[in-house]
Amino acid sequence: MAKKVNYDESSISVLEGLEAVRKRPGMYIGSTSRKGLNHLIYEIVDNSVDEHLAGECDLISVTLEKDGSCTVEDNGRGIPVGMHAKGLPAARLVFSTLHAGGKFDDSVYKTSGGLHGVGSSVVNALSEYMTVDISREGYIHHDSYSRGVAVEKLVDGLLPKVGKTNKHGTKINFLPDPEIFEKTYFKEDEVKSRLHETAYLNPGLTINYADLRGEEPEYVTYHEPDGIKGFVKEINKSAEMLHDVIYFRGASDGVEVEVAFQYCNEFKENVLGFCNNIYNSEGGTHITGFKTVLTTVINNYARELGVLKEKDANFTGADVRNGITAIVSVKHPDPRFEGQTKTKLDNPDASKATQKVCQDELILYFDRNLETLKAIISCAEKSAKIRKSEEKAKTNLLSKQKFSFDQNGKLANCESRDASKCEIFIVEGDSAGGSAKMARNRMYQAIMPIRGKILNVEKASMDKVLANAEIKTLINAFGCGFSEGYGNDFDITKLRYDKIVIMADADVDGAHICTLLLTFFYRFMPELIKEGHVFIAMPPLYKAIPSKGQEEYLYDDMALEKYRKKMEGKSFTLQRYKGLGEMDKEQLWETTLDPERRKLKLVEIEDGLMASEVTELLMGSDVAPRKDFIYKHAKEAELDY
After folding, report:
1. pLDDT by residue (tens digit) across 66-117?
2. Contact criterion met (CB below 8 Å) for 448 and 412
3. Ranges of H-type helices in 418-507
């Protein structure tokens, strides 16, 4: 029986200042992984971009410094430094208080990406140190912090002036706190991708990027006067285009809408949504509005031109969008997002405004460009025909037995039918699969061994994918269908397992199998990753057995090095696990299956565009670009000895 604990008024805690941010950082930046780390830069940059949107800034500089810190500088107005009614200089209030800023009053910023007044203060709270230099009204005003606490002494109640200047703007330098983040090394490719994306969305803005951390500093300038038209061209640069980029903009009820799209001779859909320059990875109402109108308009024209007869069914939305690359960017005075990281726009009026602008502009464009219209309708017609043939293949697949219990050496299911508690382990090899079946908790843990390497879905046609035995078993086991191809029968509410765990050996072959599975999930069931259901197991590399004392599992070479130092002068034996099959059931339970002791990596998508491009690059058929990528990133590889 659990020990009773008193729950009274003394149990209520109040976190002062920025303590709440340090206590629960994931609530504010999504995670403490590399994704959350890079998000610190984006929060500060977004504030500078808001100055640009207000017409006060045209240059932003982002520098990754040698000491691991980041500097963001703009030539905006500079944060106000005068005394606030709260009794603090306004700038200090911004950096030390949640929900303090200029984004709550639309007289200062008509539209902005930083909306909740937490960006700068959150970055401050999660930094080992932060320094701020504000150039305003002829002087440079300086402030500094340590883990969110101000350390600079005020002069007559105001920030000290450290120099005179004719410039204006804000310069912020911060070093992420290693007490908070798993790693404090910014990932340059992801940062550059985000900055380039921002330049496309703001054609009047120049962003200077510098990385001073390597032997040879890297300098890049991003300036994209063609805006989102150039963005679409960049995405489609290696594809066979069917027409020039279609671009239009307009406004409705105070919401500005900007759209650029182009069809290619590739049957993939790529629709990216942005609100106030923030990428909405999960879309939202503006994307829904665009898709709805595009489908309606194309179907109406198809009937007018006689492509669709009276007895024919309309093209589906997926038919109409196959082959499209589109950017939908809206500027909203009062956007509502799902969460601080702004992954999904939630305003109903954004959908109405997007539909109104798109309806008017699409009809105007297609009336004047009949050949382009015919090319798009032809694309939808071809998609519909392929979809119908694929639906037959899907029907054959999904009508077969969906659930097997260790038949033919495949799925050994769990007893519970409560999906929120169940988890499935995809295990490499029959040997490890056999151990896992014996070691698992049969009530909640299902085991599915796979033999060898599954099909690379990036290179394969749909009929080959659906004919693959391992993939069919995966689809049937999960129970939620899949969303790739020319229809969409994916329904995440039917998912039978809350956690899908890839359990592969810690070697090159295991990494390859893991990559093939992740490619399958990303292309056929991306919602599983977006909703946080996909994990990678972290089996230990070593087991240390001291002559005296407790045995210890070591998960990587760094842990082994620490253990050697700890055990200096003491004897111990070391067991190296070459594969999961070498572990007995007790060891497998202790290290990989036991929810109390195991280590799992959550698979996340930080940058949707970059993820798609890298997946296509590394898993596609074109060898030369893949070789270039490998050479460029060879130094980052973790070698398997």
Report:
1. 999 999 999 999 999 998 888 889 999 889 887 555 443 444 455 554 433 3
2. yes
3. 430-439, 462-467, 469-478
DSSP H or E stretch at residue 356: helix 348-368
CATH 3.90.550.10 fits 400-539+601-605, yes or no: no
Catalytic residue of the set 56, 509, 527, 556: 509
> Please, are residues 292 and 271 in contact by the beta-carbon 8 Å criterion?
no
430 is known as an active-site residue: no
Among candidate residues 56, 152, 391, 507, the one labeled active-site is 507
Class of domain 227-382: alpha beta
Confirm whether 505 is a catalytic residue.
yes
Q: Are 78 and 134 in contact (CB under 8 A)?
A: yes
Q: Given 258, 319, 505, 607, which residue is catalytic?
A: 505
**Catalytic, out of 177, 224, 428, 607:** 428
21-35 pLDDT, tens digit per residue, is 887 777 777 777 787
Determine the distance from the C-alpha atom of residue 126 to the mean position of all C-alpha atoms in its chain, rounded to a whole number: 20
Please confirm, yes or no, whether 507 is among the known catalytic residues. yes
Rounded to the nearest 10 degrees, how much is the dihedral formed by the CA atoms of 134, 137, 140, 146?
-40
In terms of CATH, what superfamily is 19-222? Histidine kinase-like ATPase, C-terminal domain (3.30.565.10)
List the domain boundaries for the chain: 19-222, 227-382, 400-539+601-605, 541-576
Concerning whether 319 is annotated as a catalytic residue, the answer is no
Q: What is the DSSP string of 385-433?
A: HHHHHHHHHHHHHHHS----SSGGG--B--S---TTT-EEEEEESHHHH
